[in-house]
Amino acid sequence: MTFDIPTNTLDEAMSASLSGTVVETTGMLATVADFPAPVGAAVEIRTSSAARIAAEVVGFKGRLTMISPFGSLAGVRKGHTVILRRTRRTLPVGDALLGRVLNAHGEAVDGRPQPARSSRRDLNPAPVPAIDRPRIDEALPTGVRAIDGVLTCGRGQRLGVFAGAGVGKSTLLGMMARYSQADVIVIGLVGERGREVNEFLERDLGADGLRRSVVVVSTSNEPPLMRLQAAGAATAIAEHFRDQGKDVLLLIDSITRTALASRELGLAAGEPPTTRGFPPSTFAMLPQLVERAGRTPRGSITAFYSVLVEGDDPNDPIADTMRGLLDGHLWLSRDRAAKGFYPAIDVGQSISRLMPELVPAEHLAAAGAVRRLIATRTENEDLIAVGAYRRGADPAIDASIELGPEIDQYLTQANQDHITAEDAKQQLLALGVKAAALLARQRPTGPAPNEMTPNLRRAS
């Protein structure tokens, strides 16, 4: 049997007649003979016990087709039948998904009846063409003071939340889900520990947050294909609401575990490992997923992707790749978390590339002044800690010491506190005024540098 069947002829009518047989299973893959289904096709393994195991075509090896299951291969043996269900994997979507918790197939896992669906969406569509994307020129209030004040993000922007384990990523994402002014929240929990799912739903998101959210869950014990599809499913649901004219907030926790699932599949399919063992397909998958977020003429998807930084190493390959793909990043500091400052955002290491396009000049100037004072204090904290710095020697250091507690208070926020974007702005402007006054009061007296230049020239 040859493999020259065009994929566009494999429609629903033909799906029922296309079948093959299992000839081998290796690890998480099954190899099928006489089965020319395209990569990405949804298939089904039928066992002798009448069980049906959903799977997906992930590659080819000569004339054989490799498929990866969404469940366990236990019970599958040589000779079992594999049939084609769809040439591309799709997801049923609809407005009834709001307030529900789903798995990577879009099936409800919250113990309630399955929600009604109005249509199906491709799980891996092409991103919106660049020429069709309007400029991002409107801020999206997140309800988190440090973000709205110093790291303002826009509707349609993509940002990363970079941190090691246990620094407060999930809590920060939960705050944004509860307090942001997006119309719809879509959350993808990828590779989470089983116990953490209910913790996030009840403690971080809460009943009010869940009411306008859709949560897609794939825990760490599930096969890699399920974990990988969970991120795509969450994005497809966000695209559904965006195309209805909604402003959607998409939160993926975490993109690192999505990449790890992709690595497992790639290596199992025989791809060569590259940086830190990741195959080329992982680095190809990330931009395809991230570019699906953004603004369109109809609506927007503002996306935050949490990035687990291995050993707090900013040069981790996934972290490094994501920094290049995103429009900004929030770096969560283990040191700030250890001191009890939450959210533990290290403003000096974080950036929102679109902030200059989103806020007025006085807001941008105040944010810049606060960032400079934070940088000054960080650069000189060892001198200050050991008492080697003498007050009055440097006005900028003096200002950073005097305003340090107020800046820390500004950047700190309890997860039950909702701060409006206007309050965040006004409090930041007040800090900017204080910083300017301190620097003006402490500026050294005497001739200005440009007044001293002629005298120096005459002396020479």
TrEMBL record:
InterPro entries: AAA+_ATPase, ATPase_a/bsu_AS, ATPase_alpha/beta_chains, ATPase_F1/V1/A1_a/bsu_nucl-bd, ATPase_T3SS_FliI/YscN, P-loop_NTPase, T3SS_ATPase_C
One Pfam family it belongs to: ATP-synt_ab
GO MF term list: ATP binding; ATP hydrolysis activity; protein-exporting ATPase activity; proton-transporting ATP synthase activity, rotational mechanism
Keywords tagged on the record: ATP-binding, Cytoplasm, Nucleotide-binding, Protein transport, Translocase, Transport
Signal peptide: none
Record-level GO cellular component terms: cytoplasm; type III protein secretion system complex
Residue segments, region Disordered: 108-131, 441-460
GO biological process, one term: protein secretion by the type III secretion system
Residue ranges of coiled coil: none
UniProt protein name: Flagellum-specific ATP synthase
Catalyzed reactions per annotation: ATP + H2O + cellular proteinSide 1 = ADP + phosphate + cellular proteinSide 2
Compartments where located: Cytoplasm
Ranges where the AAA+ ATPase domain occurs: 155-336
Presence of the UniProt keyword ATP-binding in the record: yes
UniProt cross-references to Gene3D superfamilies, sorted A to Z: 3.40.50.12240
Encoding gene per record: fliI
Main subcellular localisation: cytoplasm
Top-level lineage group: Bacteria
